[in-house]
């Protein structure tokens, strides 16, 4: 039984790692075909609008936790005017290249007790605190994908 904080962290880390599924549904190295629109042309990736980034930054809930980067949501919200343009450029580049800044992929994992014996690591769920700018980008991508699916009345084979 772990008694020191470091030992407890190691036990929880080992348990969370053992139940984590890192496999993706798409095999590595395989590129999906380019989707075609109804006219037979290639769909272009959506442009990340500065206004959309600004709107999301202005509506951040400042009572939520900041990510591993230590940037408080209030700072992002109050500097939305200044941050919208550079973030929209970063988001657009990320969308086009398929690469995400390394810092946005890091998380601080906190175990949250559910119920049952506190000694059992299975009675905790991991909560990941990630970068807020990364989460804003995820919202923009989700919105773009949702629009694409709605415009095409679902996902159809190519």
Automatic annotation (TrEMBL):
Region (Disordered): 23-46
Highest taxon listed in the record's lineage: Eukaryota
Protein name: RNA-directed DNA polymerase from mobile element jockey
